[in-house]
Amino acid sequence: MKPYVILNSAMTLDGKIASKSGDSELSCREDWERVYRLRASVDGIMVGINTVIKDNPSLTSKGFGRNPTRIVVDSRARIPLNARVLNKEARTIIAVSRRADKNKIAQLRKIAKVIVCGSDLVDLRCLLEKLYDMGIKRILLEGGGTLNWSMLKSGLVDRVIVSIAPYIVGGKDAVTLAEGEGFDKIRSGIRLNLVKFYKLGEDLILEYDVVKKQG
Ligand SMILES: NC(=O)c1ccc[n+]([C@@H]2O[C@H](COP(=O)([O-])OP(=O)(O)OC[C@H]3O[C@@H](n4cnc5c(N)ncnc54)[C@H](OP(=O)(O)O)[C@@H]3O)[C@@H](O)[C@H]2O)c1
């Protein structure tokens, strides 16, 4: 069994989740409040290690409810020991693979829980099954684009929520909603079913269910 996974991301109209220099201040105040409430409604918030290194988020609900467990996907245990996501405001799980340095794992185990899954990148299905067994039944996936791609491609995402901020920033190297190698054909892509859309402040919120492939 695996947790129900909601991918939430803010992006520009041209699909960038950060500018070419890594600026990701996209959402309006009303959208941030929606995200804080959404965080408070799940058991775990998951991000990739580049997001922790670039944005240094604390991934808490900022007083809008309880603070769920934070999960960082970090195969080589690169996370800085002073990262905000390791503060005492909530529990943190660092998911590493067998290529992570043993000494760094030992240091991390003093301040967080470490889960080992996979030999190269983190084996995401293995990780999700372990999280489910630990009682984490609903996960909010908050990027970045590389982890979003891997989770989508592996069929592990159930719902996608995007908030479109009224900007176009361009930049072929700016990170998009889903990175990775991509699909050849549109028809081979992740099929979505639009279930809800509304304006929030100056942003447009779109909510989709992921159409699961049969077999
Ligand atoms: N607008 C938004 O809502 C939003 C939200 C979040 C992030 N962002 C932006 O996104 C950018 C970061 O995105 P990113 O694509 O560079 O990185 P990312 O998705 O945050 O992290 C990717 C890294 O995770 C590690 N990883 C381990 N196992 C993995 C697996 N199975 N699949 C995929 N990744 C795995 C890899 O590093 P190792 O090989 O070292 O393990 C990989 O390079 C930042 O600029 C941030 O501001 C925007």
Please provide the count of β strands. 9
Report the C-alpha radius of gyration, rounded: 17 Å
Strand content: 25-35%
By helix and strand content, what is the structural category?
A: alpha/beta
What is the average per-residue confidence, as pLDDT, rounded to a whole number?
97
Q: Count structural domains.
A: 1
CATH superfamily: Dihydrofolate Reductase, subunit A
* Termini gap: 17 Å
Please name the CATH architecture: 3-Layer(aba) Sandwich
The low-pLDDT segments are none
Q: What is the count of helical runs?
A: 5
By CATH reckoning, the class would read Alpha Beta
**Helix/strand order:** EHEHEEHEHEHEEE
CATH fold topology: Dihydrofolate Reductase, subunit A
Strand order of the largest sheet: 5-4-3-2-6-1-7-9-8
Q: Please summarize the sheet with the most strands.
A: 9 strands, mixed
What features would you describe in this structure?
- The chain is α/β, with parallel strands linked by helices.
- The protein has one domain (4-210): Dihydrofolate Reductase, subunit A (3-Layer(aba) Sandwich), CATH 3.40.430.
- 21% of the residues lie in helices and 26% in strands.
- The protein has five helices and nine strands, in the order βαβαββαβαβαβββ.
- It has helices at residues 29-40, 49-55, 102-109, 124-133, 145-153; strands at 4-12, 44-48, 69-73, 92-96, 113-116, 138-141, 159-165, 192-200, 203-210.
- A nine-stranded mixed sheet has the order 5-4-3-2-6-1-7-9-8, sandwiched between helices.
- Strand 8 and strand 9 (203-210) form a beta hairpin.
